[in-house]
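Sample A.
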Amino acid sequence: KMIVKILFVCSGNTCRSPMAEYLFKDILRDYNNMNIEVISAGIFAIDESEPSFYSVEVMKEKGIDISSHRSRRLNRKLIEDSSFIFTMTDEQVELLRKMYPEFSYKIFKLASEDIEDPFGESIEKYREVRDKIEKGVKDILKNIYVRVEK
């Protein structure tokens, strides 16, 4: 069976993309027998960094534990192996399409509006970002699920 591989990308892989990865995995549980793998990475990530404190906190509010997540730097192999790549901003879409022009057809923005980096902001900002990401993730899943079911 075909496996769909989803890659979420942000800058550091400590706030937005881990939230997207874990929200996606959580929502995925409602879809039985879905052959979907999901990971996240950061364009400028330092490998093995812990998720930001507020990211962990606002995800806990949803009953999701991301404390064991460790950041991963984006590389060509991750791009090659992915079926769909979702970034947080238009700028990131453009950057990735410039870096990997041959894979530009699978690079998209997660939501209709940019989801800005909450790093260094208040916990309210993190909640706002989490909710935007959750909406984006649900939209993607609906689209993929329809495709896979056909």
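Sample B, a different protein:
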Amino acid sequence: MKCLVIGFGSIGTRHARVLHELGNNVSVVSQHGTAEYPCFGELTMALAKAQPDYVVIANRTHQHHDTLTALANAGFAGMVMVEKPLFHTDMVLPQHSFENVYVAYNLRFHPLLQRLKSLLQGQTIITAHAYVGQYLPDWRPGTDYRQSYSARKLEGGGVLRDLSHELDYLNWLLGGWEQVVAIGGHFSHLAGDSDDAFGLLVAMENCPLTMIHLNYLDRVLRREIVINTDTQTIRLDLARGVLQVAQQVETCVVARDDTYRAEHLAAMNGDVASLCSISQGLAVQALIHGAEKSMIEQRWVKR
């Protein structure tokens, strides 16, 4: 396919590389230029010259809505993949003629998360607890985190958005959120004004008690899920690649590009079962908004 990646920071570079390795014709929109792929300084020229079938929006979160609007206004009718989260604040999708729009929650394609989803089929789920933490200054080696969007609330930074994989996959596994109460904010010594820790208590459609902890503080990466059903306890350590049910243990080592590759292949082949649809992406956006509203108003917020 002819692919256009908008934004060429760390995540845009990854998307471009993965798409190129899959044999696609890749072009890039970036103000900084690149010698690796044909590069355009603005979107209109890129659409005219590259004539893409598939567009990946990988610029900063606060630019996503304007980029989608520009694509729609240009009459683009192909497929769109928007990096997570969909928007930096509560917004609606512009009117468009896109073939499909997906949100890039690639963690859904981790084999052990897929395995967990299959294990939960037909189960009565009682509690779920998800924990993710990683020290922000260690995220992007060789770059100053203080210059990244992650440290800046207005650019879509903060753990609720940066680490929203947990919000998405729990919606995906547990049937969608119904109400939330939360506390969070900027509590640490880290530079910037974005939230560095958040805790959410969520009632899900298929799980009455779901706890979610997100932070920029853990010096050693943690990404764990514990789910209790009426018959078993399932523990999944995504950082180590270990799934445990009772005394049975499964392991799976996954390179970071693997889930991105699987996600793009699914989109290109029309295999939508594990892709994050636009409605599901908006549900995550609503949960983020609900958690922030709950924190400010100190009350439960319903969907």
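Observation for Sample B: DSSP finds eight helices and 16 strands in the chain.
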